[in-house]
Specification:
- By secondary structure, the protein is an all-alpha fold.
- Helices cover 90% and strands 0% of the residues.
- It is built from eight helices and no strands.
């Protein structure tokens, strides 16, 4: 039974070979320009490419893969590449175009694989079904022959070079899968830390803005108080000036009357002396 499962894994590996090849080529090209990228650009680009790959591999049907979520990831990835082309002078246009081409090749190759899986799941392709049946018969026959040979010659599965090679490949694929999961977890943790830093900075800025608004409000109140006090002072001074003007006017009138009276007295005195 272990042989059958191993051979089934090999069959799946062969069908997904083009996909993995395109994925590895794309990652290899990204590695070439990684030294010219910032930490945020690296995380964003690797995460989007890996997310595209995972969404397609884990999609059970063409409809699930071509969902809004998957299309959004594709648009974001192309957008990141375009921003790198416009904002990073160390990366050439040829390198960006090659990355876009490899990304498109990967997604198109994935669509081909999904169509095959969809046909198998829905039973719409008799030819594909017959191939699977024939392969299963071959696998079962191989397994029975292997068991008969094992009983007859008292041998083990490790004596078959093909089986050992298949098990080695399976172990290698499992190791690569674990490594990809580990890298994805690290990237997600880094993104979470970056988001926390941004949230803290945003909270601090909002608090500073609130404090600044409070101080501005207090300054406006103080300014209003000073303005009203100044207006009141001016009004008081104007009233005092008016009262002073009235007082001066009264003095002038009194002085005028006194001068007039003195003048009459003087005239009367002069006239009296003249008559004498």
């Amino acid at each position: 039974m272990k042989i059958i499962l191993t051979l089934l894994s090999l069959t799946a590996f062969l069908f997904s070979g083009d996909l993995e090849n395109a994925y590895e080529r794309l990652n290899s090209e990204i590695d070439k320009i990684s030294s010219t990228l910032s930490v945020e650009e690296k995380i964003s680009l690797y995460y989007l490419v890996m997310s595209t790959h995972d969404k397609i591999v884990n999609g059970a049907s063409q409809e699930k893969v071509e969902s809004d979520s998957f299309n959004k990831v594709k648009i974001q990835t192309i957008g990141v590449l375009s921003r790198l082309q416009n904002g990073n002078k160390q990366i050439t246009s040829e390198q960006i175009e090659k990355l876009k081409t490899l990304y498109t090749v990967m997604t198109n190759q994935i669509r081909k694989d999904i169509r095959k899986d969809t046909l198998y799941e829905k039973g719409r392709s008799l030819t594909y079904f017959m191939i699977i049946v024939i392969l299963m018969l071959i696998f079962i026959s191989f397994y029975l022959l292997q068991q008969l040979y094992k009983i007859k010659n008292q041998t083990t599965a490790e004596q078959f070079p093909l089986v050992r090679e298949l098990e080695q490949k399976n172990a290698k694929l499992a190791q690569q899968n674990n490594l990809l999961k580990s890298n994805a977890r690290i990237i997600e943790e880094n993104i979470a830390k970056h988001d926390n830093v941004i949230k803290k900075e945003k909270s601090s800025l909002l608090e500073d803005n609130k404090t600044l608004r409070t101080k501005i409000g207090e300054l406006v109140k103080d300014l209003d108080t000073v303005y009203f006090s100044h207006e009141k002072f001016i009004t008081t001074q104007e009233k005092e000036i008016q009262n002073l003007n009235k007082y001066v006017h009264t003095l002038k009138l009194a002085l005028t009357k006194e001068e007039s009276a003195n003048h009459h007295v003087y005239l009367h005195h002069t006239t009296k002396q003249t008559n004498n």
